[in-house]
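Why predict the complex rather than its parts? Because the way molecules touch one another can change local conformation, and only a joint prediction can capture that. The input here totals 582 residues.
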Amino acid sequence: MNRDSSSTECRLGRNTLVIAIVLWIASNVFVTGVATVATWEGIAQYKRMANLCRWDCGWYSSVVDAGYHFTSPFGNGAANWPFHPLFPITAYPLHKWLKLSLPGSVVLASKLELLLAIYAFLLMLSDQLETTSDYARAASLVAFNPYLIYAHAGYAEPLYFALIAFGFYFAGRQRWITAGAMGGFASATRVLGVLFCFSYVIAWLKEQQWRFSFRKLRLNAMVGLLLCPLGTALFTIYLHSRMGDALAWEHAHVAWGKQPGSPWKTLQLCFTQPHWPQVWGVFMVAAFVASAWLFKLRKPELGLYLALVALVAVSTGYWAVARYIWWQPPFLYAIYRLLRRNSGAWLIYVAFASGMAAFMVIEWFSGHNFVI
Amino acid sequence: MDLAALIVPLIFMKAIFLIAVLCALIAIYAVASWAVLHPHVSAAYRAYYIDHTTLYWNPVHYPGTPAEGMDFSREGLPDWVAYTRGFSIREPWGQWTDSTIAPAATVALTQSYDGIVCVDFSASAVSWLVGKQMAITMGSQTRTVKIESGAYDYKVQFDHLQNARQLDFVPANRPPRVKDVDKHSLDDRRLGLDLSMLRLLPGECASPAN
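Output of the joint prediction:
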């Protein structure tokens, strides 16, 4: 590498970080501003960052506070086992060492991880980005995600997003062990991260020009592959030693009435019920269409990941579908590629995304379970 | 010094290291697989979280004796019942056995029973099961009763029980879904008996056994 290209890369890296920081600050100002105005109007109760901690944030907080339950403390059998450990681990130092309040530390952790998510997404898209404007637009897709609230409310979404985006970035550069480690961390953040194994294999086969050969099987690629589900595997072993059921992270969903079912049935339900289920149904269809389009764009590793995630989301019902889909790097990647083809569409998308994001921030305080 | 002499051992060391990591990862997945296949949980946990054969987790227990009985319309379970399986949701008049949840409806007991016991239960049944047989199993013994129409007080005699810890209500054939019999219904449960009261009485049943 010559000195010129090295300095260009360094400048680009610095610019990426600066743009990520600027958009991250803008995202925080946006959420704080909307929550404050909603409080003036009596819709919300926002005084400090910790007020954003609701729904699943409470479960993550319980993990930070006292670890995983030995047995369910609630009559319906609900427990904090489905909430994978990496995100609460990142909130732990903020609460235990810096002495921030429990909900405040969990919310701050997710906010800080949003910065990581923006940066990781820019790296993932780096081969598509040329100008500063390209970088800013790409960063805005994460920073002003329609379901932005999950990045500011003590959820694992931004950390998971960042790790998967890093995973794709490193897999694209044949840095197999690092890519596998990112997959491993992602699977310790959300069980969906395990699906990165499949994309990893596709990325590896792509690099081999789709010719599998045992002779070409490199040790570091094998180690990387086995690292992908490591987070969930270790969590599984931990739960077995703590409370006896290695799959408690899956079994506990029964308390919320979530059971794996037919994806087709969920889609049918979405379009036969009024209001939000129809919106979620549109998101599901959009995810599958985006997945197919990613294959056409010769990004099968992204397309496969999005298809698998969408399939898992649809199979578990429709309540969390929006969150599942809008916090997937391949989905935002597809949106970026689509919008880049037609710069006029950016305006429409920005209007949709910011309007939706503001509405979701306001509704976050309403207690309605369509945004959980 | 020859450069190759320096590099070759390094490459060899790296390969050894990667093989060691690979072996460690395989060992971790082996342990995880073993843990998945060997849950160390209570029967009640298994019924609720894993098998989904009960709809209520850790129900409250109220004081009571087997002779005083178990009121199926009352929230919670009496002290002498550990948990139940294969029952539908609690309703003001009792609880239905539901074969979509489990093939048999089970009342697991907190203590074992030996000797002679009279199982006395009040139940009505879905109309399409009237006249059919239902097996009642306690410990290793099974008795069959003919399902009567309307609310009926069944008395089932068990002799020479040994270490009996559960009572099962097993329909002779898997009941059909309600919606398959009643075309106006959307109910997809496979209902059998609607139990309202269950008593376990020591000794022989007072009236002739069914």
